[in-house]
């Protein structure tokens, strides 16, 4: 047993309260090195009467480690615990201090979860677990009111450029809510709506005004109310890392220099402000002079932005915020942001834009979730680019799931493309079967899936600005096969709770293989998903305990023989089989 590989620490993703009564414990061991792990757990004040051994399940694995998990419900909301590691006859008891060949005589040196204080529990909005998001880039979704068009607006459907306009607006969204309802969408994420100079609006000029190109406050209220009538939640984009160069405090700074009362609203390295050799004399998003970085440690800046966050929730009843460039803003600001937002609307969804491992932001005091780009990368590497095999993909997914508490994984924002990436169909080089296979994994994976507007009707496009083309509303030019596929896939996710919050277990993911099999299981259903990520027809075989199965899409039945379920799949085919009771 390689004890150097064993790892656990209290709190974080290793020991946390899942709810007001339940504590989740996790421990890491070298892959395939330990045959079983148990948690020895009890109350420190009545240890002998309360201590019990709780078997742990192998939650996930990656290329190096196994991650084990169990649930404990301590009667008095406090817990002392250690671990029993076994490999055949070899046994070790792990305490906070050491590995012992015999059980510890007292609990004094065990790990401890002192008390489940309700205020410390990482609580996420329950509705997100059942959400299917749809990302709308407002300028390119639909032109519902040409009277709002900015000067120089081009005819709908032209070539997208970084600086051109096609007149998309909120009225266009309102006019096409039927499309979203028919698709099965129950949550929208809008990229920025506030007044700005660009087509993407990430250079905010006025945080308290809807851009006149899109409409006004009353129209947004109308859109949100109409969405809520249909059971659709609404998420707005908050650009609090930086403003635009036409933001009034920055205009004052440009005019008055060191004499500006707003000089400490920004991070100025040198006066007078300007750009030298392509580098601004003030901190910005990247090196973009149009986007000066805000000083969120400044009390006035903090007060202003927190009022903005509260204002739009109270005025328009939005359901949360997506936070742009979230990892470049200080943690203390986000802690105060969470308090303000959750007080205004307790079940608001707080989603940070972070492209990498995000544990520091997912401890219950800042975000509910992040945009899950590690998931995106793993899915594209396997399903689209073919640079990893099934084993490598399962390892990447296992590593990702091990990083966060379960409640964070249950509301992770899982996307395959966005306004910042090439479109999925383009990444697949037009191969719809590949695209469908990736989407089927996305919609049968823990977390909330998001569709980038137009993917469902076959929009294509490379890196920004190509990915931001106009939505296709001519039914004759829409890919009706893809549209039907997405409708059916979304309906399945809504129908089966196991596909949303059931336990995920990889059943087959071998080195060098393009075959993938996994299950999603809850108290009601067990569904096995089999995937052939290959250009050739193939037969998949997995070990199962149940004998009778039904395809949840076709209704066709299948039988396992001698504990093996075999299914023939076409190229890039997928089967979803539910165990019959």
TrEMBL record:
<comment type="similarity">
    <text>Belongs to the glycosyl hydrolase 13 family.</text>
</comment>
<dbReference type="Pfam" id="PF16657">
    <property type="entry name" value="Malt_amylase_C"/>
</dbReference>
<dbReference type="InterPro" id="IPR013780">
    <property type="entry name" value="Glyco_hydro_b"/>
</dbReference>
<dbReference type="InterPro" id="IPR017853">
    <property type="entry name" value="GH"/>
</dbReference>
<dbReference type="InterPro" id="IPR032091">
    <property type="entry name" value="Malt_amylase-like_C"/>
</dbReference>
<dbReference type="Pfam" id="PF02903">
    <property type="entry name" value="Alpha-amylase_N"/>
</dbReference>
<dbReference type="InterPro" id="IPR004185">
    <property type="entry name" value="Glyco_hydro_13_lg-like_dom"/>
</dbReference>
<dbReference type="InterPro" id="IPR014756">
    <property type="entry name" value="Ig_E-set"/>
</dbReference>
<protein>
    <submittedName>
        <fullName>Alpha-glycosidase</fullName>
    </submittedName>
</protein>
<dbReference type="Pfam" id="PF00128">
    <property type="entry name" value="Alpha-amylase"/>
</dbReference>
<dbReference type="InterPro" id="IPR045857">
    <property type="entry name" value="O16G_dom_2"/>
</dbReference>
<feature type="domain" description="Glycosyl hydrolase family 13 catalytic">
    <location>
        <begin position="135"/>
        <end position="493"/>
    </location>
</feature>
<dbReference type="InterPro" id="IPR013783">
    <property type="entry name" value="Ig-like_fold"/>
</dbReference>
<keyword id="KW-0378">Hydrolase</keyword>
<keyword id="KW-0326">Glycosidase</keyword>
<dbReference type="InterPro" id="IPR006047">
    <property type="entry name" value="GH13_cat_dom"/>
</dbReference>
């Amino acid at each position: 047993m390689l004890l150097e590989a064993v790892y656990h620490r209290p709190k974080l993703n290793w020991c946390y309260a899942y709810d007001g009564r339940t504590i989740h414990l996790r421990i890491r061991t070298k892959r395939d090195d330990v045959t079983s792990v148990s948690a020895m757990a009890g109350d420190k004040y009545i240890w002998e009467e309360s201590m019990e051994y709780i078997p742990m399940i192998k939650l996930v694995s990656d290329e190096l480690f196994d991650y084990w998990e169990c649930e404990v419900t301590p009667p008095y909301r406090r817990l002392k615990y250690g671990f029993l590691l076994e490999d055949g006859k070899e046994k070790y008891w792990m305490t906070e201090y050491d590995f012992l060949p015999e059980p510890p005589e007292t609990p004094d040196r065990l790990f401890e979860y002192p008390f489940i204080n309700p205020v410390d529990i990482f609580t996420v909005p329950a509705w997100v677990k059942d959400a299917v998001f749809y990302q709308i880039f407002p300028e390119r979704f639909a032109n519902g009111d040409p009277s709002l068009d900015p000067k120089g607006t081009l005819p709908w459907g032209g070539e997208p450029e970084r600086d051109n306009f096609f007149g998309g607006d909120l009225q266009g969204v309102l006019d096409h809510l039927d499309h979203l309802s028919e698709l099965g969408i129950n949550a929208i994420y809008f990229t920025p709506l506030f007044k700005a100079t660009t087509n993407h609006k990430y250079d905010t000029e006025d945080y308290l005004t809807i851009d006149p190109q899109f409409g006004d406050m009353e129209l947004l209220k109308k859109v949100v109310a109409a969405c809520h009538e249909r059971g659709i939640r609404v998420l707005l984009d908050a650009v609090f890392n930086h403003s635009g160069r036409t933001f009034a405090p920055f205009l004052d700074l440009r005019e008055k220099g060191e004499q500006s009362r707003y000089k400490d609203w920004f991070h100025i390295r040198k006066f007078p402000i300007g750009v030298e050799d392509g580098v601004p004399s003030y901190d910005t998003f990247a090196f973009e002079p149009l986007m000066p970085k805000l000083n969120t440690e400044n009390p006035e800046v903090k007060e202003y932005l927190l009022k903005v966050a509260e204002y739009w929730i109270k005025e328009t009843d939005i359901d949360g915020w997506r936070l742009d460039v979230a990892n470049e803003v200080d943690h203390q600001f986000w802690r105060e942001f969470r308090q303000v937002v959750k007080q205004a609307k307790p079940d608001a969804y707080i989603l940070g834009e972070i492209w990498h491992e995000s544990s520091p932001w997912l401890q219950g005091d800042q975000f509910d979730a992040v945009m899950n780009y590690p998931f995106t990368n793993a899915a594209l590497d396997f399903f689209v680019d073919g640079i990893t095999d099934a084993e490598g993909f399962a390892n990447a997914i296992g590593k990702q799931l091990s990083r966060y508490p379960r409640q964070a994984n249950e509301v992770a924002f899982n996307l395959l493309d966005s306004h910042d990436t090439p479109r999925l169909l383009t990444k697949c080089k037009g191969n719809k079967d590949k695209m469908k296979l990736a989407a089927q994994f996305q919609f049968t994976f823990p977390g909330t899936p998001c569709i980038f507007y137009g993917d469902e009707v076959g929009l294509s496009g490379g890196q920004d600005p190509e990915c931001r083309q106009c939505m296709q509303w001519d039914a004759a030019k829409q890919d009706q096969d893809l549209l039907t596929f997405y409708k059916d896939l979304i309906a399945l996710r809504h129908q089966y709770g196991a596909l949303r919050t059931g336990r995920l277990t990889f059943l087959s993911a071998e080195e060098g293989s393009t075959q993938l099999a996994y299950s999603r299981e809850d108290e009601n259903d067990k569904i096995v998903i089999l995937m052939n990520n290959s250009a050739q027809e193939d037969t998949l075989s997995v070990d199962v305990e149940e004998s009778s199965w039904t395809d949840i899409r076709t209704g066709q039945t299948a039988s396992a023989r001698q504990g093996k379920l075999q299914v023939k799949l076409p190229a890039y085919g997928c089967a979803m089989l539910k165990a019959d009771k």
